């Protein structure tokens, strides 16, 4: 499986963001930067997160600590959403089983 990479400096130039912002995201553990030779790369799969963090930082003036807090809250919400879906599915199975028993 080949991972698609984007050169950080080119991405920053195209999106008009500072390369130091990408470094800050990496330092906070929000993204992963790969280094090959002298070049730094972003994973294509991380672009939606980088764009979201960029909007928070540049458009909404949220500092890095705020972005990190928002990231962790969104992760917790996603975990709770998955748990609720799992519990909902279990409940449906239980109700279906209960209905089958009452029909006998």
TrEMBL record:
Pfam families: MerR_2. This is MerR HTH family regulatory protein. Keywords: Coiled coil. It comes from Bacteroides salyersiae CL02T12C01. It comes from the Bacteria. Residues 70-97 form a coiled coil. The lineage of its organism: Bacteria, Pseudomonadati, Bacteroidota, Bacteroidia, Bacteroidales.
């Amino acid at each position: 499986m080949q991972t698609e990479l984007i050169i950080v400096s080119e991405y920053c130039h195209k999106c008009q963001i500072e390369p130091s912002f990408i470094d800050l995201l990496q330092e906070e553990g929000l993204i992963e930067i790969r280094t090959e030779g002298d070049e730094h790369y972003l994973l294509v799969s991380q672009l939606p997160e980088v764009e979201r963090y960029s909007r928070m930082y540049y458009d909404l003036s949220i500092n890095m600590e705020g972005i990190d807090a928002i990231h962790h809250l969104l992760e917790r919400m996603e975990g709770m959403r998955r748990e609720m879906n799992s519990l909902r599915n279990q409940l449906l199975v239980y109700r279906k089983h209960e209905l089958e028993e009452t029909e006998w």
